[in-house]
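Worked example 2:
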Amino acid sequence: MAENKYKKLFTEFQPVSTADWEAVITADLKGANYEKKLVWKTMEGFNVRPYYRAEDLKNLNHLSYLPAQYPYVRGTKTDNKWLVRQDIDATDPKNANTKVLKALMRGVDSVGFVVDSKKGLTEAEMDTLLKDVSINSIETNFMAGGASLTILPMVVEYVKKHKINTASVKGSVNYDPLRSLTLHGKFCKDKKHAFDTAKEIIEKSSSLPNYKVIGISGSMFHNSGSSIVQELGFSLAVANEYLSELTERGLTVDQVASKMKFSFSVGTNYFLEVAKFRAARMLWAEIVEAYKPTNLETAKMAIHVETSRWNISAYDPYANLLRGTTEAMSAAISGVNSITVVPFDNAFRKSTDFSDRIARNTQILLKEEAHFDKIVDPSAGSYYIETLTASIAQEAWKLFKQVEEKGGYVNAFLTGFIQEQVEATAQKRDHNIATRREIILGTNQYPNFTEVAEADVTTAAVTKSVPQHCNGCVKPLVPYRGSMAFEELRFRTDKSGKEVKVFMLTTGNLAFRRARAQFAANFFACAGFRTIDNIGFPSVAAGAKAALEAKADIVVICSSDEEYTTAAVEAYNLLKSKAIVVVAGEPECKPMLQEKGITNFISVKSNVLETLKEYQHMLKLL
């Protein structure tokens, strides 16, 4: 027998069992709690272990499927090509047309026209908007809300007038009355009219087989602060409501499902976001299959993704470039159909030529330089991502079933279940940001010390909207950005006209004074206060003298716990009537210091947001 020329690598190393790994980990922990130290408790309702092995995949049923094979967990295509989409304001059709033609010359192959849902477009405006645009070679999408019913016939007529092959026309209008219910607390008219219109728009689109007309907005949950599981579970419930209502009205599941497009957001939780889209396709395919379609191809989920608006910040906006890049990477790896990278300055102004260019090039770089479009489902087989896919699918399915048990999405929303779930998560995330358990770089941690808000930033841009109540409305979801509370805080300082000086009185133990000064400087800079750091003073008196000469509003004592017993008291006595005195840390001597009159302490246990608001109040900036 011929000798096998292929050799298995690393055969000289004996396999290590999970029990052996766990024994070493337990020993290294030296008595510390394994679950608390190493197990990540996610916002999504399941725990993530510190590592996974092949044995963790034994009970996962979705591993045997190939790309483009039902239930499409590994993608709906045999390649990983996606469309680079740019969304354009279509209020001025002529300007929008100019912008579209430039974008198409710069790598865009999908366009989203943002149309005023009340005004819509006239036929003449449609002609202007699409002039010289080859809609048989690119994807055209109209984000028009209630105006979708008038825009779709214009698209049909435009195709007919220009004798374009109808099968080659791809794109969408996003008729989605459940989005109106969710974000406004009521239907435009009533539930019956909403679904009757949905049936009508599907029937009117029959001549355009590849045009989607029913939109499912997962982004509205994400941008209201939901978890990944909630975004997915509630989106599936919305989609199922359309399937149920429209099949009851005489349409087939094939007619309905083939006309639906899902729009999700993608956040910075890199691997969970990859797993989310894999789980989404799998669950949707199973929902559609339950309606007994004649062709399982209609169970393929069409997914458009935009990078998160919830994550972007108005301060240190160039950090949004990094967020948008990693988010686009997650979406591309997971095999979605099209991606919009939100321009980095979206939080406070309309995009510029520069920010649009960077947004486009983010995706083009992923294709042309990183070659993300060359490999289908590269995450397949990863112990971690496959387990995450199963965990997200399991939790989202539980939530989906809860909604169905309440009578479907509309009933669940009208009784407040959806709002309660999303708001509870949003409040938890807000608290995590306020206490720095969740970091928004440049906002609640490591801010740009010298930054002043861009000229385009307004109070409205950094303030969370309050829902407007109306007769016949239920409480809606309110999209916002996670960084808004800190931005509002800092913007208040910027607009006060007062330069607040925070002086680091560093003394004693070198390691402690440096670490605490850096912590305190970052802490107060989040409010836009000017921090004055120092390498150290030979005595408390010298430091106090320098603080007074600097005309400091706040003086932070930075030293070791042991030295605080005398240094903090001495500094307080020298400065108490001239500045706000703060101790950096939570020393054991805190009760004694409080007895001496020191009441201000900052530490990693502090609620940064609320603490900084208190200092603004003391300084009369509120």
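Residues 403 and 417 are 8 Å apart (CA to CA). The chain has a mean pLDDT of 95.
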